[in-house]
Specification:
Number of helices: 3
Strand content: 25-35%
Distance between the termini: 12 Å
Strand order of the largest sheet: 4-1-5-6
Order of helices and strands: HEEHHEEEE
Structural class: alpha+beta
Shape: elongated
Oligomer: single chain
Number of strands: 6
Helix content: 10-25%
Length: 96
């Protein structure tokens, strides 16, 4: 997300009916340990860097012109990266 979100003219938005973005550590720990073997201390250190943030449907996580400074883990819902071209939203990336 960081590379694409830094491009001017792009926005990141929660965009499915009833969806929101939830960055709780429970799912994050499961996701990480699915791909890499870590000690409990290492896993705790990584997950402690994440903060819980709730973004309700159709609210922005990042707006056009802002620089993304966070790594986001989507616990529930959908995240969409898009830009406007001739007043039409062009989706370029989704996260579930």
């Amino acid at each position: 997300m960081t590379d694409k979100a830094n491009v001017p003219g792009r926005s990141v938005k929660a965009n499915l009916p009833g969806s929101y973005i939830d960055t709780m550590n429970t799912g994050l720990e499961e996701f990480i340990t699915k791909y890499v073997e870590l000690s409990e201390a290492e896993l705790a250190d990584i997950t402690s860097k994440f903060k819980h943030k709730l973004v309700k449907k159709n609210n922005y996580l990042l707006r056009e012109g802002e620089t993304c400074k966070d790594l986001v883990f989507v616990q529930k819902g959908c995240l969409r990266l898009y830009y406007l071209k001739d007043d039409i939203e062009v989706s370029v990336w989704f996260a579930f």
